[in-house]
């Protein structure tokens, strides 16, 4: 039954006096301006950040503070005029709300200076700053409505009937899409997200307090339309300003769609009156906004809302799904609440029952189609002492190389066992899950900032990095499949470097050599790759999903392996064998996953085996192709993988790595392992033997990079499912150089493990290429041609002939 209250004190006429036409026009124009000024910079700012990330450039620290402050000025000036000039109380309340919202955006936006990799620190700062801003705003925005001041009851006292539970129910409805598509991070991250959401809800309650709603007729049952439509619209723009500053870059995009329509819901919740004719106040605002922002804060990792994952149905896709679903829910709530509440307010029992139903539904969604559990980041603890491999005998030849690998493996394991013993014991005592590594003397550990601080203080620890962990998806991302026609003979890139002449004239195809690939995986059933798989129980490893047979969802690894050893005219060394490991999942990796695969390549082990005790170093591949880099967004620092490549160098395993696709900027070869001196780094050229614009350039401190270039534009190779695709990148060029090394070592087994001579032959037999002037170097070419093209274009025919001499 609709509650009946005795009449309260009359509301003074000016409190809801109709504004003049000029004031209305000014408010409408200011509102449209505010929406445009808020939405455009948020979307463009995120897009610019993603473009910088894709280009391999660091995000400028000043980007989001500048965006936030410019938005503050652009919105704050017209809002200030609305707050001061018109005589209408409603218009002035509009200006005050938008001015306060722009200030909140400016303050909260400054927090995005915290790198996204430190999400817990950002959430803690957001909770603290939002709460402090709410306290300050509450003092500055005290209501001046006489009707409220003259009433004994507090302006924001308990809401009548079931109004607050109805707000909770609306908030839970907005949370449902995130319970379906999202996944929580770590425990601390989730708790901090809840605190931050509560603080933002508290701030929203201050900005949209009882004084604000009174200006639009709250407490006057005879004018609900003005309150729901006009008050709700102004509240929605205010929420747009608030959520634009809430969340790291990317995490704020979804609530920009879902929260503003909730302003109409809040307006409808203010219609019911208490015995004194007062607005329902802050409590409904706090609950609805707090629950509305908790979803994107807790259930998405801002680093995964990235264009790097946009090629498949990954996190960006599901964030869009959640945003679209949330927008639909918000609109339904706005219409339902706006139509029903002015007519009849449900009793408290009904409202509480609605909350219970939605809570149970949310729990079922989360436990069923959702991704229950905690999926926080881990820590990579790098120890000070690394294995001493300087005096390992550099014996060439197949037998000599196998002996070197065994000795390197022994020293690495002994060093790790000795130096990690105390730390592992303490981690066991504290019940912190951990994974030890030997290739780099390091341990991956579960833990947050407190554990990180404790680990960093230990004397045996050199540094502690964040090891990224991708959160699960509600449905598989799907498998990338090729749409290009199959090859009809040796591809143009094979002919350009003369690999087809090696097969036909020198009768060398790579037989007897094994090429190892760490990438997104390999489709072993592809006709061009099936016969080349080495087989056995130690030729495949998947640290992400534990698959027992080679597979590839992303397609990148199948394509690159096809260019190295594929048959049917796509691979440089079609007679070589291959082994594989999955270090990229959905196009992203982490320091630990890169180490998982590199350790497997040094000393393969059977499924379920212990890398420390079950490794088989004599089964190590001869050549490694690595079309990946580990940037800071994945947790790497410039030196973290340096001990790993040094170990392969000592073991006589030839490591080839992609220069990167962040050209034409000079000094853009910077993601490990490409800058390392003991890695053979490869850039890309096109059909015209011209270095591609995307190919990363030197200089690199202390060493000339890239070492040489290979075809990397419009390269046709294998894709999962038996198809083919034409792709660009230094990723495509790198495996071709690995294939050339396989041809060289197959032609002269005495050259196996002789890394210095192999590198010299590759450089000495390379042919000139064309380089275009590039920005940033004193000579217009990054300090010299060597920093753009290295020694030139790899020549397979000349290199194999030189290897036989």
From TrEMBL:
Signal peptide: none annotated. GO terms for molecular function: serine-type endopeptidase activity. The chain crosses the membrane at residues 21-41, 61-85, 97-115, 121-141, 162-180, 192-214, 226-247, 253-271, 283-299, 319-341, 350-368. Residues 510-769 form the Peptidase S8/S53 domain. The keyword Protease applies. Keywords: Hydrolase, Membrane, Protease, Serine protease, Transmembrane, Transmembrane helix. GO terms for biological process: proteolysis. The active site is at 519 (charge relay system), 556 (charge relay system), 731 (charge relay system). Belongs to the peptidase S8 family. This is Subtilase family protein. It comes from Micromonospora inyonensis. The lineage of its organism: Bacteria, Bacillati, Actinomycetota, Actinomycetes, Micromonosporales.
